[in-house]
């Protein structure tokens, strides 16, 4: 049945992900169980397992959900935006992301360092985003700077 605000399935999945994010931040990855997630979301363990095969898949989706706005900014076409506005907007996206999700990202990195199963997934994901963001900034800075300057270094300085 489709209700205002999406399907029951989508709302249930959203409540599971919100609960999981809160629990992962407060208890850590290893300190959070699927039972904890179910209880906080107000659903049964079976419901959590119907939506997600295991705790790692819940974690992966919470991470992807957190990173979605940042990824969207990397995939956006900036060609029509004037250079100065583009640079300001790109830096603003990074700043807003850090302000909104700094606590969670710090926690995620900490868990990744402490939990070998998460390490590769988390670090690969964050390094990829960092490289893509740095590349996007370098392209913008390259268009703003005279040719004798190294745009990648200037972008890193920002």
How is this structure best described in words?
With 158 residues, this protein is an all-alpha fold. It has 2 domains: 1-52, Homeodomain-like (Arc Repressor Mutant, subunit A, Orthogonal Bundle), CATH 1.10.10.60; 59-158. The protein is built from 7 helices and 2 strands, in the order E-E-H-H-H-H-H-H-H. A two-stranded antiparallel sheet has the order 1-2.
Write the layout of secondary structure elements.
Layout: E1 2-3, E2 6-7, H1 8-27, H2 34-41, H3 45-51, H4 55-75, H5 83-114, H6 116-144, H7 151-157
Antiparallel strand pairs: 1-2
Main beta-sheet annotation: 2 strands, antiparallel
Strand content: under 5%
Uncertain spans: none
- In which range does the helix fraction lie? over 70%
> How many DSSP helices?
7
Strand runs, count: 2
Structural class: mainly alpha
Shape: elongated
- Order of strands across the widest beta sheet? 1-2
Write down the oligomeric state: single chain
Q: What is the N-to-C succession of helices and strands?
A: EEHHHHHHH
The residue-averaged pLDDT reads 85
